[in-house]
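Give me the fold.
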Amino acid sequence: MRPALTLALLLAAAPAALAADAPAAKADLTFENRGIVTLRATITGADPAERAAAIVKRLEALEENELGGEITIHALKIGTQEGKAVYLGRKLLFALVQGDLDPVSDETVDQLAANAKARLAEAFKARKERLSPQAVLRGAIYSAAATAALVLVVWLLLLARRGLQARLAARAQESLTWLVVRGVDMRAQVALYLRRTFTLGFWIITLVLLYLWAAFVLEQFPYTQPWGTALAGRMWAVVADLALAVAASIPGLFTVAVIFAVTVFIERLVRTFFFAVERGTIEFAGLHRETVSATRRIALTLIWLFAIAFAYPFLPGSGSQAFQGISILAGLMLTLGSAGLVTQAMNGLVLVYSRALARDDFVKIGELEGTVLEVGTLSTKICSVEGEEVTVPNSVVVSSQIKNYSRRASTQGPTVSTSVSIGYDVPWRQVQALLVEAALATQGVKSDPAPYVLQRSLSDFYVVYDLIASIGDSHRRPSVQSALLANILDKFNERGVQILSPHYMQQPGEPAVVPKEKWFAAPAKKKEGA
C-alpha cells in the first residue's frame, strides 16, 4: 500500500519536487478551537502555514456522518523524509514527517502522530456535539442555572455586607468607646476603615465568582470548552501554587518561630538582670545605675538584630529578587537619611556613659537651667525654672558646658553661689561677715558645712566677693538663690554698705542704699516675723 499512499499524498499536496528541506516558520494546526499538532517541515514546496491552511480546509469539508469514522495512521516516505499519514476511513487528512519534530524534544514521529490522532478525535467529537441541538440546549440550561446561582450568591453577599455595615454603625458608639483617647474620637475613622474593608472583600469574592462562572459556562459548549478548561486550569494552578508555597514555607516558619521563642527567653533574662542592677539588687563591675537603662536598650537591640539576621534566610520569599530589592532600597534610604540621626544617637550615648547628667538632676546647660526629665537617644528634655519643658538636641548638650548641681565629689552636696562688687572703702571682713549672715538667714541654706566667702579679684574700682553656701535640695536652688539675694540686699542696706554692681567709674556722693523704713514701701507688704 505504500506506493499508493505516497502517490495520493503527492497529488493532494502539489505537483512539485519530491521534498524541500528549506527551513520555514512553524504553524499550529487547530480545529474546533483545539490544538492538533505543530507543523515545522516544508513538504512538496508547501511551507508549514500553507500545509496547516490546506489541512483545515480539508477537515472543514468533512460531512457530519464522516466524523464518527475510524482514524488510522500509516507509514510513508516522501523523498528523504520518513513520516506518518493520518487517515479518516480512506481519506487522507494530513502527513507528519521527521521535520515536524521539535528539535529540543525526544519525541518520535510515531508519538507525534499518536498524540495528533487523539486530539483530532476529541475535535471531531466536539464538532459533532456542536452540531447537535441537544448539546447546545444542555449547555444553555447549565449556563442559565449557573447564572442564576451567581446572581443569588452575589445578592446574598450584598445583603451580608449591608447587614455587617449596619451592625457596625450601630455598635460603634457603644462598643468602641476605648477608641476615644485623650479627647480624640477615632471611632468614625475605624468604622470607615472597616466598611471599606468589607466592600473590598465583597468585590474580591464577586470577581472570583465571576471568573469561575465564566469558566463553567465556556466549558458547557463544545467550541468554547478549551477556553473554559484553560480558565479553570489557571485558577486551580494558582491555588495549587499557593498551597505548595504555604506547605513549603512551613519548615521555615517553624524555624523562625523557634528563633523568636529563644530570643524572647534571652530578652527576658537580660531585661531581668539589668532591672536588678538598676534597683541595686545585683552589683556588676562597670555597670552604674545611670548607664544601666542605655546599656539594656543596646543589649536588647543587638539581641534582636542577631535574631533577625538568623531568621531572615528562613522567611518565605527572602531569596526572591523583589524581597532583596526592597531590602536594598530600605538600606539605601536608611544610609542616606540617617546620618544626622546616628550623630544624635552617638551624642546621646556619650551623655549617658559620661554620667554628666541623669534624670531628676538639676543642671545648667549653657543659659538653660532646670531639672532633667529625660536623657533620650536623640535629645534631652529639661524642665526649666520657669516650668517650661525644653527639648535640647544631644549634639547641643555635648557641645555645651554642663553644670550639675545635684552631684558633687565632695561631701558638701549641692551649693548656691553669688557674686557682689564692693568698693575698697568697705572692710573686707565686714563684707564677708554680712554675706555669711545673709546666707545663714536664708531658708534652705545649710549651716553645716558653713557658708564661706572668697575674694575673686581686686579690680580697678572694687573688690569681687563670691559667696558659696550648701543647700539641702538642688531642685530648690532657684528659690533659695532668690531668697539669698534678697537677704544680701537687706543686710547690706542695714549696715549702709552699697553694692557696686554693675560696674561703676566713680564713687557717688551719697551711699546708694535703701533705708530700713522704706523696705516695705507700697505696694509691698511686710510679712509676719520679717
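The chain has a mean pLDDT of 78.
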